Amino acid sequence: MTIKPLHDRIIVRRLEEGELRVGGIIIPDTAKEKPQRGSVIAVGQGKVTGDGRKLPLDVQTGDSILFGRYAGQEVKVDGEEYLIMKEDDVLAVIEAVSPKKPAVSPTKSKIAKKKKVATKSSTKSRKKTKSR
């Protein structure tokens, strides 16, 4: 069965978080807080303004989002739990960050050479000050 939200509503599947352990004690499901992160399954056509225009939604199908703790209405369809909420209940869209390339750092041998040069020049300047 497919679900199609109306107007500015979206359908979200909560992303399950891993098992929570506090001091080696496993917290039961009933005591856990529900995650505030989800994946958008479907989006409506858009918000209708007072003059009849439709404003498209900023959220798209497949986006990972953050939403408020009490946002949306929980529904169960075909054994799956979903949230139906307005786009206004979405706090943020989580964008995937591409891994950064590590900055090019000097190799250990170059660092060692710089240290040797620095120690040689400092000992030369010490010898000159002692001889005066």
Describe the structure.
This protein has 132 residues and is an alpha+beta fold. It has a domain of 86 residues: Roll (10 Kd Chaperonin, Protein Cpn10, Chain O), CATH 2.30.33. The protein contains 1 helix and 10 strands, in the order E-E-E-E-E-E-E-E-E-E-H. It has a 6-stranded antiparallel β-sheet with strand order 8-9-1-4-7-10, with no helix packed on it. The chain has a two-stranded antiparallel sheet with strand order 2-3. A two-stranded antiparallel ribbon has the order 5-6. It is flat. 13% of the residues are buried.
Task: Please outline what is shown here.
The protein is α+β, with helices and mostly antiparallel strands and 132 residues long.
Secondary structure topology:
Elements: E1 9-14, E2 21-22, E3 25-26, E4 37-43, E5 47-48, E6 54-55, E7 64-67, E8 73-77, E9 80-86, E10 90-94, H1 108-131
Antiparallel strand pairs: 1-4, 1-9, 2-3, 4-7, 5-6, 7-10, 8-9
Strand content: 25-35%
The CATH class designation of the domain at 9-94 is: Mainly Beta
What is the helix/strand order? EEEEEEEEEEH
Rg value: 29 Å
What is the CATH topology of the domain at 9-94?
10 Kd Chaperonin, Protein Cpn10, Chain O
Essential attributes:
two-stranded antiparallel sheet, 132 residues, six-stranded antiparallel β-sheet, flat, 1 helix, 10 strands, single chain, 10 Kd Chaperonin, Protein Cpn10, Chain O, alpha+beta
